[in-house]
Amino acid sequence: VMAALRSLGPLLCLWALRLPTGPGAAARPLDIASYRERVRAMFYHAYEHYLESAFPYDELRPLTCDGQDTWGSFSLTLIDALDTLLILGNVSEFQRVVNVLQEGVDFDIDVNASVFETNIRGEVGFSVVFMQDYLFVRVCAVHRVNTPVIQKYDVSAFQTPTGMPYGTVNLLHGVNPGETPVTCTAGIGTFIVEFATLSHLTGDPVFEDVARKALKALWKNRSDIGLVGNHIDVITAKWVAQDAGIGAGVDSYFEYLVKGAILLQDKELMSMFLEYNKAIKNYTKFDDWYLWVQMYKGTVSMPVFQSLEAYWPGLQSLIGDVDNAMRTFLNYYTVWKQFGGLPEFYNIPQGYTVDKREGYPLRPELIESAMYLYRATRDPTLLELGRDAVESIEKISKVDCGFATIKDLRDHRLDNRMESFFLAETVKYLYLLFDPDNFIHNDGSVFDVVMTPYGECVLNAGGYVFNTEAHPIDPAALHCCRKQKEEQWEVEDLMREFYSLKKKTNKKFTFKRASDQGEGESAKDPEDSSSEKGGEKRNSRKNLHSLLSCPSQSFTSKLAVLGQVFLDNT
Amino acid sequence: SCSRAKDVTMPAKLPVNFFSTRSPVIDLFRGQLDYADHLRQDSEIVLYFFYAPWCGQSIAAREEIERVASRLSDQVLFVAVNCWWNQGKCRKQKHFFYFPVIHLYHRSFGPIEYKGPMSAVYIEKFVRRVMTPLLYISSRSKLLDFLSNYEPGVLGYFEFNASPQPPGYLTFFRSALHSLKKDYLGTIRFGVITDKHVAEEISLVHSGSVYLHRHVNTSLIYPNDIMNYTAENICKWALENREMLVRWLRPHGGKSLLLNNELKKGPALLIFIPYNPLAEIHPLLDEITKVALEYHNCNKSQAAEADLQHLGDTDSPAFDSSVPDAHMKLPETISIAKYPCCNTVVLPQWHSISRTHNVCELCINQTLGIKPNKVHVPHCNFLEIEAALDSFYLQEHTFFQVVSSTIECSNLLSFYSPFSYYTACCRTVNRHFLSFISSEKTIFQTPKVAFSSHGKKDNTQHSIPHIEDRNCFIPDHISGTNITGLSCRTNKTLNVYLLDSNLFWIYAERLGASRSTHLKEFATIVDLKEEVHYVLDQNQSLVGSTLEDFIKNFSVVYSPLKRHLVDDPSVRFHEQHVITEVTTSTFHHTVFLSEKNVLLIYYAQWCGFCASLNHIFIQLARLLPPDNFIVARIDITRNDLPWEFMTDHLPTILFFPHRRKEQSVKFPEDFSVNLPNLLKFILHHSSLSSSEPCTKECLHKETVLQQGHISHLEREIQKLRSEINALHQAHDQLEAQLSEARREEHRLQQQKHTLEKQHKSLQLHSKQLQATYNRKNQELLEMAEKLQQLADASENLLKENAILRILVASREEKLQSKDETKESLQSEQTLSEDNDISGSTATAPLEDKRIDNTNTVETEHSSGNRTE
Question: How many whole angstroms separate alpha carbon A299 and alpha carbon A290?
């Protein structure tokens, strides 16, 4: 928390220096400071009304000013909004809520919870805590206490012949007898980030193992043309819904392949994603839109754009495909301009909403992409999307008790819901878009050092990975928790050698040899130690080992702003 | 109530005013389109602003519209219509994909959609164009003014003699309006000439003829006989044939390939200037267009000359004085116009040493064709020109050897159109342009035209490419010469573009324009194919001469221009900088000039794979001795580097060993990036291992190293200390927890004791209770016994009573019998009876009492039984 405060302080000063000083005739650039404050006001309007009228229910019902349980009585909105408080810089309220929650929330209750939703939303406790160094030491320890509970419900869902989990689980009794074995793809493939984190924290590898097993099962069951469908039977591994796309039912599976690869420096996950990416480009991409196709034949089954698909450009920007990301983003932005929100389904050829799918529950995905892309391009168009989002949400969905889901984008009728992701994600990403100096955007120029009984750790050095419900995880904290004694000792040995180099001419550790030990799979000829030879080898293997990297941006990226896109030279 | 609340929905809020009520804009916020149409009937010019109240762009444009409205409200009707409100007419009738939409009407003509920038000045300019789509050219000076403008111009000549409107005028007028529909930037200007003499200046004789002015290529006259004379056709014709020497680039903000398409054409000179469309004069713009005109002026046509002259003169206030001069040159424009369709071709060099250049002017010559009577209404189209060009290329070798100071012409038959001939007039251009310009001028003014038969000099190479000399040198002093016609002499022809820096300065910034300058002027040459761009030094002011030099420097073979490397000026230096942030400008200094080993990380903030490694590099930097090592990084998306240091993937880690900086090594990509691997990599390549004879320097180094080691150890000790501290803390914490636990235990024990005590006392109590119970029971039993006794007694008494009754009864019987028999004894007996009665009355209540008694005893007895 201190880190958060520390980084917020200088940012505000820097901000004042950056204020635009345009002449009169010029197009006035967006006043992002004022929009940032409007987003903050939005947050408190919703948050305070939730506390007042809905707590301890899961969600606020903004039209009737009361609460309801949706995912199972965890005061979900509050849990979800927790780290948004931190990002807004409200440390005292954050602390207060943490204390309330530590007493109150009990997952050991007799309700049926979606494994998937509970995982991504409920496990906020530790991901939040990651961001604060002073709580950190407690995390590694404290969580061991809680795990039996989590273990009980989470892992039981994974006990199927395929290793793919059931969709729903009872928090007290495990999987209900007679539970349907049909689970959506995302419900199977969206665990690795949280479960690997859990495993690192608790030292119990079972979580990461089951998550990986589920991912591999999906990978094994992809079609011949490399696509996955929408729903699968976890007992028989038969695809029940064979629509392949990037949206609902699949979205966070792809998201977690990438984010897992980044968080865990995992080449296997990344290579899976890149293969999927190839198939997706080949079969579903048309004119920078992504359609739905039959997973075996690749024929178009639904020419629609789904609101949930709007996360894709953000994901692309994380792996460096900024050009394509921007082009797709601009397509999606036109839909927003048409309706003031993104309908759940948008028929691309007709240019209109799809029957029964006209709602906009204030989803965050497009704003999320805008935030990632703004990091990469600083394109003012992305701020304009943010501006449009603030104006739309305030004008259309703000009511006395909060912000209401838009039931129908054609006439802007409102529904009596405010989903928890509004405070957890939509507002958070909007704020981060308008606050480029937020500590979340830390590029590694500031960091904290903590002494743990296990050694020294660097924390809060940026590179936070957001889980699919926008809860940030600090990769440094993860690394710190899993760091083995061996690495520590190895580093100490190396440092000792460092200073004694002068005397010993025969080195005890050579880079090649030592690294062979570390990386069995990429073993190299030990004699091949001359750098020139190594260079040749590198070139021949280029495609193999640049998996965990981004391509550097092309020359045209300098000019690819304000809607300008460039075609490849090839 | 729960299920009912679930179905609660709320219709959208009712629309409210979008513009303030005081605004000059009429706000139909309920979408009353019918009323909007009604309003239009009363007004000549109407601007409709269709908005959606939730739309950010509409909100942003609102202010701009209000500003325009406040300036033009007396001439233009401004109507804003909420086209979102789903019960309004507008929403029901129109389907917009974006907001706001601006439509303009000129009387019944419309809608003309405005698609330009949402900036008040641009909107106002456009509205003014709609108000007066035609410029009235009343005099020669106005004509010159019109023709000298860099933007293409279309002129119509109409005689307003008898009828108020000559035939075709209305069509021409509509075509001017129509062009605004297609060409929302309004680059083509439309003018109308009513004076016969003015019209003659551009060889327009017939009323109704339409003329498209071009600076470099020949101006055109609308071909009435081929195309129908309609507004659409005129507009299309002008758009297709206009000449764009300089083009404004105005990206509209949506997804677009504008820059892609323009920059793919070849190297581009992008000039950023602040532009106010409403300003009367644009001196800087005039200067730039003058340079562009010169640059494209290959054949030195007199027309261009005249225009240039005039362009130069517009600056001077004494405008009229230059008119006679211009007047002299105008006829020559006409004389060249006798070949109406011409195209300049630059021929490849037949001899590489030659310092000459053949330039041919290829003209369709229809005087030799079958339509000789239509000489004066020339028409030409691109098909013909292209056909002519094709056949010319087949014949061109005949022109290679022409080395002549005269213009030599050939008549050739077009392959594709047997009825038309074309004439190719070629001349030789000396590469010593300096001398050429000065000396050849006279030749042009009096061209000696000599026709030669083609095909007689057929002895040259055939395989010479049309794109010019690669191996041929251009004299050094070209940089000191005029740039006239340079576009034809160079193989790196530039397209010139203008951008309004009020709107598009961001492109300039991203190409390296300094953020600190107040003057938003910037010129850069972007070569997309070569992935380079050059920048005109911003310290030089942007004027014609610097621009000319810039172009010339770009054009010469050994260009002195250096690829511009964009630098990130916003790098912040933090106190905590264990990692040195390198930029373009500090790269060389930090990496090559420092006396240390340098580990350089290429990264980008947006790349997920880089950001998640931050903590590893920070740890590494904290471990390595700062005296010998620098851990540095460079954000490669914001800092360009020389080609040899560019990388195609991020993150890339390079190690530059001390003293062997040129032998940099790359961290192999197939090793995972972690602390031990990085240390091993550095150890492996570090220059410290070199075994050199130990000199003084070496000793010195040794001490430095040892000192480094010492400081490292010291740091290590510090670390260990803090580790100990941490352990202590943990220990304290544990101890605290332990003591807490002990206290807890103690408390529990105490609790146990008290509980036990309580237990005992309770047991005691229960014993006591048992005893009392027993006692009570005993008492009860006793009581029961007593009662039993009582009951027995009462039973006895009852029996006695019964016996007594029987006795009494028997006695009474006896007495009755005695009554009958012994009446004598009655008095005596009455006495005794009285006694008896008194006795019986005395016993009766007693008996009652007894009965009562037994009853109560019985009930008590039964209750006693129950308790037992």
Answer: 13
User: Which residues in chain B have Cβ-Cβ distances shorter than 8 Å to A503?
Assistant: none
Task: Give the residue-averaged pLDDT of B821-841.
Answer: 57
Nearest to B634 by CA among A266, A476, A552: A552
More confident residue, A332 or A140: A332
The mean of the pLDDT values for chain A is 79
* Residue B716, CA distances (Å) to A492, B442, B615, B719, B722 in order: 9, 87, 19, 5, 10
Smallest CA-to-CA distance from B478 within B443, B433, B521, B436 is with: B433
Per the CB < 8 A criterion, the answer to whether B357 and B428 are in contact is yes
Using a 10 angstrom Cβ sphere, with 0-12 exposed, 13-18 middle and 19 or more buried, the burial of residue B556 is middle
Q: Is A64 annotated as a binding residue?
A: no
Higher per-residue confidence, A530 vs B162 = B162
Substitution target in B601, B670, B710 with the highest count of A β-carbons within 10 Å is B670
Given a contact cutoff of 8 angstroms between Cβ atoms, the answer to whether B368 and B421 are in contact is yes
To the nearest whole percent, how much of chain B has pLDDT over 70? 70
DSSP state of A67: E
Contact present, B568 and B639 (Cβ < 8 Å): yes
CB atoms within 10 A of CB B614: 25
Instruction: List the domains of chain B with CATH numbers.
Output: 26-126 (3.40.30.10), 133-244 (3.40.30.10), 248-295+482-564 (3.40.30.10), 356-369+379-430 (no CATH), 580-686 (3.40.30.10)
Question: B611 CB near a chain A CB, below 8 Å?
Answer: yes
Give me the half-sphere count of Cα atoms (radius 13 Å) on the Cβ side of residue A152.
13
Residue A446 to residue B576, Cβ atoms within 8 A: yes
Between B258, B528, B650, which is nearest A556 by CB? Answer: B528
Which residues 743-772 in chain B show a CB within 8 A of chain A? none
Could you tell me which chain B residue has the CA closest to the CA of A480? B615
pLDDT of residue A61 exceeding 90: yes
Residue A211 structure tokens: 């998550």
End-to-end Cα distance, chain B: 59
**pTM for this structure?**
0.76
Q: Which long-range contacts (CB under 8 A, 24 or more apart) does B20-23 make?
A: B23/B66, B23/B69
Burial of B565 (C-beta count, 10 Å sphere; 0-12/13-18/19+):
middle
**Higher pLDDT, residue A385 or B201:** A385
